[in-house]
Amino acid sequence: MTRVSSEKEAAVLAQPTGQEPDSPAAAETEPQPISGDSRALSLLRDASLLPVLVVLIVFGALVSPVFLQADNFWGIGQYASSIALITAGEALVLMIGSMDLSLGGTYGFAPMLATWLVAPASAFGSGLKLNAYAGLIVLLLLGAAVGFVNGLLIVKAHLSAFIVTLGMLIGLAGVQDGLVDGQTISALPTCFSYIGGNFWGPVPVSLVATAVVFVVVGLFLRYRRAGRAIYAVGGNAEAARAAGINVDRVKIGVYMAAGVLAAMGGFVEMGRDGAITASQGYNEGVIFIAFASAVIGGVSLLGGKGNMVGVAVGVLVLAVVQNILDLKNVNVFWEEAVYGLVILIALVIARVIGDRETQT
Amino acid sequence: MLDNNTVAVPRLAAKHLSKWYGHVGALREVSVEFWPGLTGIVGDNGAGKSTLLKIFSGFEVPDEGEVLLDGHPVAFHTARAAREVGIESLYQTLALVNTLSVADNVFLGRELYRRILGVRAVDRRAMRKDADDALKLLRISMPPSRVGVKQLSGGQRQAVALARAMYFGARVVLLDEPTASLGPRETAAFLRIIRDTADHGETVVVVGHNLPQMLELADHLLVMRAGRIVAAFRPKDTSLRELTDFMVGSA
Q1: Average pLDDT of chain A?
Q2: Closest residue to B99, CB basis, from A19, A229, A304
Q3: CA distance A116 to B167
Q4: Res A210: pLDDT
């Protein structure tokens, strides 16, 4: 297919056709003025919750003298890293207009399986003594495999994403529990706890790793054909199909990528804890935090909208709230209630700001 | 158009096309030729207009007969395949992705690239510029192409789809009731655009209900009834009355 020479076309179309001047369309030929076009502005629009984050930081500084200390910020970064990774996965699935509850299961089961394969039987492991790096590969492959199965069931068998991934979530959590009889494996190989638990100077390694992942995913979404296709599939699957995009392949690929991101998140969380518990993931309800963070960060549940800058801000907003609650020693029995209320308020603000921004 | 040494060949043609839905013959042995310019197809509901257009655009496969593009038989089973040989169809529901920008929509599935540090990356700037240029040719009031399609009016959306077809050098542009959802002012603007496109030497086929509009717009008019083409006119040689008679079968 050849591109039309625009000079030639311009010349042809510039010839008066007679009906031109008095046609009603003539009044419409003036191009509309172009308003501010800086890249910085569009990035800011992506992160419409930045003001909320600023307000939270000011509030945190007022209520706790510890809040503004650098170590506290690095701590927030370390805490937020694992959540950010699983949220990135959930955001991708939301962008294609679907949902994946099973990421919460993968977040616990993938690191559990890897550690169980590596750890000795005396520490609730399998006793298979798999090489730790091979365990790492198992962890990533498991994330991809769970996503692949989800994708097949949803895309090819046309089953409901909600039910498929709910079943998968509960099933994975059950196997995670069953493998270790509800116990915790704390005998982690060094390479398992390095990213989640170590610091480079004051900087948590997990934060650096997560930032790298976010930049890669963000660039992928923005500059690769497959990344653009994710938005198209979520925005209008029929139009995407007519444009030659393999919609089924894009969807299954996204479920797989999300599974891998959730497995990575669980891996980082395990390293931060220095142990893998039977309750990591499903029993902690991490999937709800991931959903809330993604939506607060501007990812549409209807698909086709969202980006990694927004997701990062969404994760940080909730992480800062969590941090303030921890610093203020809010009664643990009431902590969840406050957290839920904050999520609702943040969602409302995100909606109000987001809508106003997109209309400009 | 006509070269002395070659026999003229219609841009798009159909030979003995038939399409059945159960016992209902939606198309019966339809043979037709489309030349550069604007051909309007009119007919009552169920006359077979849309079925004919759907076959040309790859959404339906005929039970019998063949489609020829520039004299060569072509067969396709998807809109994608039809588009690849240069037949673009503008369907309102299928055309655009609301959540993407105008530029992203123009280049959806056919993105422009550049290399950043050796990695192939979508060249968003070039896409925006080319989309702006392509839309400028249509001389319709449009916001810059980085704006989301969601913010466009119905007529502007149609213009985006048409600009996409023109940019990629479509051989034939098919439109099904293109102004059905547009207001009067937008209808006038969009009709001017497709008239311009036809004057520019494109082969444009428009299916429509609005007979006065079609009489004014088209270079050739085809009347369909009960799966057949029952009449072909130049607009100046016919009248509203005559068209209606052919449509309902009283002629």
Answers
A1: 86
A2: A304
A3: 57
A4: 98
